[in-house]
Design brief:
Chain lengths: 419, 280
């Protein structure tokens, strides 16, 4: 960006005007999107949208907002009043439309304008200050049709200690033009995800049209034992499923610090030759607040067949540390293997991760190379009898030809008998 | 069988062996290949919609999951294109961005999540964009994703010098031309609406807003220029509705200002002018 410098004017006369100017910088502002339609609004209804204000100015900007047009009085902003934004930053401004209850159906147009001024220019305040502004063309469509819909952006749950409820957070956005109350159903499952231990239904919070809301659902824990659990969370609009998600959480002893680990991945190098010893590494991170012993247990599977069971040594993993839990596998047949497993730590188990190992035949000596089809069948050139059969056929044909030629020669040489 | 015939037979045998050996040794040279199958790239998901940053860039992400029957570790290289057309394109900040080395993380079993980012500039076209991701495996086999649509919103923006100085003037004097350069720092063509306030003087009087005149031509006569008003209604079509400043890497136009000092004022006079960009 160019910064223009204007000379300071230091002298003025009794009958003259002096416009003393500070160093002149550039002021810039942008608003996106450049058009803001509020569609399908009910009279007396509510809708909100966000516009992004951005600036590449090197100075802090004072921001104010203005509305103009048919609906100037129906539009408000959050935050209300002016605010400042730092240099080279962006800011999301909420624009709220609330048409009155007696307005006729139709399309109403106007502008929402964001005005930016360099904050320090006002303090130095001598001369003509320039403000930069960006206007957003805005429209509001008033209709009679009611629309009911919503979406779920995120579902989360945190670990809980004894004496506290489990807290689920479900982030929803009302996509319609009427208020609605999302229904959330939660099934709590044990560590092996077999059967629901308990179920909860939540349908308590009304969400305004176009508005986002984070639902907080507290599930009592009096009947839960210490351990790891899974939760199947389903959100509904009437009978329609909006979103389903499976989450895990720990229910801990009172005052216990969280022991939490994560299996990042399992690696085996993707490709190996028959007879190679393959190093299997399971990357484990201790993301809790206490050190823990960790052990990888895995299986090597080929097709539906369990080929080998893997188990690493148990290793002490410090807080914040990431280590590889290592095991080894020597494939005895060519083909595709899946190596999958989990890490056991402090009576807990991680999510399962896996990798694929493709085992090719060992590279043969030059004179006896092998070929293989994708199905995994090996053809060896040295064991092929086709070559021998072809040779024999050629030799026999040659001998027959030779013999036939000899007979002809004999016939030609036979003396003629004269009477 | 005579010795001559035997010699002939052995010659044929020798030639046959030589020829067949040659033919079959060609088959034996085939490369070892244990069923390599190419990666399968999933439909990408991207930041949507995208609000650009005025006069600057913004990082846009396009992510996907890639599956490879030979395992996630077999996926070797991933690149991506963000573009306004569904066909291949040449890199251009207006309509085509490329990432030739997406971030490959870690995966599980056959699948791997990848993150591709693009630094998109302020004048990138608004409208529908398409993200396309291509993956190669360690054996050189490649596959590309189906296309995913994202929207880049329009950005209305401008950049202008933050003040205009007129120097020392006498009563009745014109200031001469003073330039304000307007840069379009968004991705929409803009007109500029202008409005201002009276200039208050610290010793005596006010200069009414209409004493400030402007147009797009330098060396103009003050009387022929547009007078500034307190509201930004269209009173000067050459700027307020026909300015038509296009978007681009360096798109700007000058607006020239002249102040005529009225009688009855003295001292330091200050006021405000607002330049408002509006799509047009």
């Amino acid at each position: 960006m160019t910064i223009k410098k204007f000379p300071l004017s230091l002298s003025f006369f009794s009958l003259s005007l002096a416009f003393l100017m500070p160093l002149s910088l550039a002021v810039s502002v942008g608003v996106s999107p450049g058009i803001l339609p509020f569609e399908d609004m009910l009279r007396g209804g509510y809708a909100e949208k966000y516009i992004t204000i951005s600036t590449s100015s090197d100075e802090t900007l004072s921001i104010s907002t203005e509305t103009a047009g048919d609906f100037a009085d129906w539009i408000s902003f959050e935050p209300t009043g002016g605010f400042t934004i730092p240099p080279r930053s962006r800011y999301k401004l909420k624009v709220i439309a609330q048409p009155p209850s007696d307005v006729p159906n139709g399309v109403y147009e106007g502008t929402v304008t964001v005005v930016a001024r360099i904050k320090t220019s006002e303090v130095e305040g001598s001369g003509v200050t320039v403000g930069a502004a960006a206007a957003v063309r805005t429209s509001i469509v008033i209709t009679d049709e009611q629309i009911r819909d919503y979406k779920v952006n995120e579902i989360s749950v945190k670990d809980t200690e004894e004496g506290h409820p489990i807290e689920f957070r479900v982030s929803v956005v009302n996509l319609g033009n009427v208020r609605l109350t999302p229904r959330i159903h939660i099934d709590i499952l044990d560590r092996d995800k077999i059967g629901a231990i308990k179920s909860v239904d939540f349908e308590e919070v009304e969400v305004l049209p176009t508005k986002g809301h984070q639902l907080l659902i507290k599930v009592p824990t009096e009947d839960l034992e210490i351990g790891q659990y899974w939760a199947e969370v389903t959100s509904y609009l009437d009978q329609k499923i909006i979103k389903e998600e499976l989450l895990t959480f720990d229910f801990l002893e009172r005052g216990a610090l969280s022991v939490k680990g994560k299996l990042n991945f399992v690696m085996g190098g993707a490709w190996a030759e028959l007879g190679d010893v393959v190093r299997i590494a399971a990357s484990f991170s201790n993301i809790g607040e206490l050190s823990t012993l960790a052990k990888f247990k895995g299986e090597v599977i080929s097709g539906d067949k369990l080929v080998e069971v893997l188990e690493s040594e148990e290793i002490d993993v410090a807080v914040g540390e990431t280590i590889n839990l290592t095991t080894y596998f020597r494939p005895t047949e060519i083909g595709r293997y899946e190596i999958k497993g989990v890490v056991y730590y402090s009576k807990k188990v991680t999510e399962e991760k896996s990798t694929i190992l493709n085992v090719a035949p060992r590279e043969p000596p030059e004179e006896n190379k092998t070929t293989e089809s994708p199905g995994g069948q090996v053809e060896t050139a040295g064991a092929d009898y086709t070559q021998l059969i072809v040779i024999l056929v050629v030799v026999i044909a040659a001998l027959i030809l030779l013999n036939f030629r000899k007979e002809i020669v004999k016939k030609k040489r036979r003396p003629k008998i004269r009477g | 069988m005579k010795p001559k015939s035997l010699v002939f037979a052995f010659v044929i045998l020798g030639v046959s062996v030589l020829l067949t050996s040659f033919v079959f040794s060609d088959t034996a040279q085939t490369t070892v290949d244990v069923g390599n199958l190419g990666p399968q790239v999933g439909t990408p998901s991207a930041t949507d919609p995208i609000d650009l940053n005025e006069g600057s860039d913004i990082t846009v992400y396009c992510n996907t999951t890639i599956n490879d029957t030979n395992g996630w570790e077999d996926i070797d290289e991933v690149n991506a294109t963000l573009k306004t057309v569904q066909t291949p394109c040449t890199a251009d900040p207006d309509n085509c961005y490329k990432n030739t080395s997406c971030t490959i993380g870690t995966g599980s079993s056959n699948s791997l999540d990848v993150n591709c980012s693009f630094s998109v500039l302020w004048y990138a076209d608004s409208g529908d964009w398409y993200c396309n991701i291509t993956a190669n495996d360690s054996q050189g086999t490649s596959n590309y994703s189906s296309i995913s649509t994202v929207t880049i919103n329009s950005l209305v923006a401008l950049d202008v010098n933050s003040s205009i100085g007129f120097g020392s003037l006498s009563i009745g004097q014109d200031s001469g031309n003073h330039t304000a350069q307007v840069n379009n720092t968004g991705n929409s063509q803009i007109d500029v609406r202008l409005n201002g306030t009276n200039m208050s003087c610290d010793t005596q009087g006010n200069i009414t807003v209409g004493q400030l005149h402007y147009n797009t031509t330098s060396a103009s006569d003050w009387t022929l220029m547009c007078a500034l008003t307190e509201t930004n209604t269209d009173t000067c079509s050459e700027i307020q509705s026909n300015f038509d400043l296009t978007d681009g890497a360096s798109s700007n136009k000058d607006i020239y200002w002249i102040l005529r000092v009225p009688s009855g004022v003295s001292g330091i006079c200050t006021g405000y002018i607002t330049f408002t960009a509006i799509s047009g």
